[in-house]
Design brief:
alpha/beta; 5-stranded parallel beta sheet; 6 helices; 8 strands; about 40% helix; globular
Length: about 180
């Protein structure tokens, strides 16, 4: 896995937090774990995290408020909400606020790794705005698509020169 793949685990339950952290570390992830929304936002100020695994019910700032702040201040970070109190309303709200996924606890090690991997792939597929030469002077933009590292196909003819394809050379599912 590349050092660029960084994951933040936010959960007030120490057992859950350490379990997620250990699971992700076995998948060769760079993981930081914090126990509150306040600590999560402080960590985000000091480090760029690719994926945030976020509990909803925590003392102090709740998960929905943290989600809003992350998407406002760090829109390129993907957020996976993992809650022990799932409701249709909170799932809709989380997705509306920009969460990539919403999972109900209990979540096993394989599910944690898979959720983080899917969120990482989503981030890699996200279109990035890149001004190009004379287009930038006119206010126009081109877009470069970053594809997941584990995709082994070729760019379609319609993708043009703006598509970038990377091959997976590591063994990590988050690679």
């Amino acid at each position: 896995m590349s050092e660029a793949n960084k994951i933040l685990v936010v959960d007030d339950d120490e057992t859950v937090r350490l379990s997620y952290q250990r699971s992700l570390q076995t998948a060769h992830c760079n993981v930081e774990a914090v126990l509150s929304g306040e600590e999560a936002l402080r960590a985000m100020e000091h480090e760029n995290f690719d994926v945030v695994l976020l509990d909803l019910r925590m003392p102090g700032i709740d998960g929905m408020s943290v989600l809003k702040e992350i998407k406002r201040g760090w829109p390129n970070s993907e957020v996976v909400v993992i809650t022990g109190y799932p409701t249709v309303e909170s799932a809709k709200e989380a997705v509306r606020l920009g969460a990539y996924d919403y999972l109900a606890k209990p979540v096993g090690p394989a599910e944690v790794i898979n959720a983080a991997s899917r969120a990482m792939n989503q981030k890699k597929w996200t279109l990035r705005r890149e001004p190009s030469g004379s287009d930038a002077e006119l206010g126009a933009s081109t877009y470069r698509m970053k594809t997941p590292r584990d995709w082994h196909g070729a760019a379609s003819p319609s993708a043009g020169s703006a598509a970038t394809i990377e091959r997976n050379t590591g063994s990590s599912p988050l690679g």
